[in-house]
Amino acid sequence: MTLSTARRTGGTDTTNAGDRRGEVVVTDIGLDYNGVPALADTDLHVHAGEFFTLLGPSGSGKTTLLRIIAGLLDPARGTLHIDGTDVTRTPTQKRDIGFVFQNYALFPHLTVAENIEYGLKVRKMPGAKRAARVKEMVDLVALGGFGDRYPAQLSGGQQQRVALGRALAQNPRVLLLDEPLGALDRGLREELGAEVRRIQQESNTTAVYVTHDQEEAFILSDRMGVMRDGRICQLGTPEQLYREPKDLFVAKFLGKTNLFPGRITRVDGAASHVRVGEHDLVARTNPAIVGDDVVCSVRPEQLILGGAGAGSPVPAGFDRIADAIVTEVRFLGQRRSIHLDADGIACSIDLDPAAPAPVVGEHVSLLVRPGEIALVVAAPAASAEPDASA
Ligand SMILES: Nc1ncnc2c1ncn2[C@@H]1O[C@H](COP(=O)(O)OP(=O)(O)OP(=O)(O)O)[C@@H](O)[C@H]1O
């Protein structure tokens, strides 16, 4: 977390306010429902112009945090600053925020143009300026030619574009989006997801986005926070979180991974030596200490196949992490998915479909580049499971 020290200590923050239009700083914000925490005391700094995603399973507290930022929920504790101003108790309509929900929430009796214009009229923007702004928004969300249609005459994706145009028309400091693609089918979600990102970039608006869909979060986000049980468990870029998950929950929630239990035998500056079954490996250092039980998390595309047996050659730059037997080989178009049994551990690896494929029953070894092993400290299995319902 990179909370401004000045703000933390109550000192003068010298950052130019113009540089941080849309900056959101959440400090020790928490909320309980009937004594049960929905959001543990949370710190978060969303940078100006950033596309930030709150990603987590159902019930992890994403919407609660978003609604607090919007002013739709009052936190029990903590403070919220937007552009350096304390807005913790400022009503929603004075926060200068745009909101897009999953269910579009358009006015059915107003046309596309009228829906986008609505908020501008309420704010008494003069007619000519209003018309120009509506046209600008209709173009921005690629709905040119649809201005006179009613919501019922639009597809779900088009309706969500209107909602985006309406939210952005007033040039909000922050755009908050709560599962805006949730009601759309897969293909449309991808297409509109790319559009949401383009529109956010073109309008240079800070976005805070809520989803339980990891792929969506990866496509859209500059940075994201993975939430679980009312807490942000890890913050970072999609790549950081994918490659360096801090715990088993994050490792498993962000896509498929292979988990090999091991024990730290030596920590040597930037390298941790870890014993996995019969194999000694070197991995990047981590918070673990000598003697700790850890889990080596290796993504399917980070493993390659080697020959069976201790004597078989290992290519330079690779370590053997396990011996295994092939249990299934599946052709999946862009990749070939190989399932294996590594002494009771179910593993999978992805191969280039053009490469020679192993056959079921073949004895192989699994090889990995040391730098690609993410070491996570083992947690009790029950609490490490991502919520399968998400
Ligand atoms: N009005 C409420 N009264 C009581 N508990 C609530 C209320 N709203 C939410 N909660 C609880 O607070 C926790 C966080 O809910 P929240 O809606 O923020 O989760 P979420 O991650 O957004 O989930 P989803 O993806 O399903 O929307 C959950 O345990 C939920 O049951």
From TrEMBL:
Decide whether keyword NAD is in the record.
no
Cross-referenced Gene3D superfamilies: 2.40.50.100, P-loop containing nucleotide triphosphate hydrolases
Return one GO MF term: ATP binding
Q: Which InterPro entries match?
A: AAA+_ATPase (IPR003593), ABC_SmlMolc_Importer (IPR050093), ABC_transporter-like_ATP-bd (IPR003439), ABC_transporter-like_CS (IPR017871), Mo/tungstate-bd_C_term_dom (IPR008995), P-loop_NTPase (IPR027417), Transp-assoc_OB_typ2 (IPR013611)
Q: Which domain of life is it from?
A: Bacteria
Q: Which SMART domains does UniProt cross-reference here? A: AAA (SM00382)
- Boundaries of every ABC transporter domain copy: 24-254
Q: Which UniProt keywords apply?
A: ATP-binding, Nucleotide-binding, Transport
Name the chain's protein: ABC transporter ATP-binding protein
**Organism (species):** Agromyces salentinus
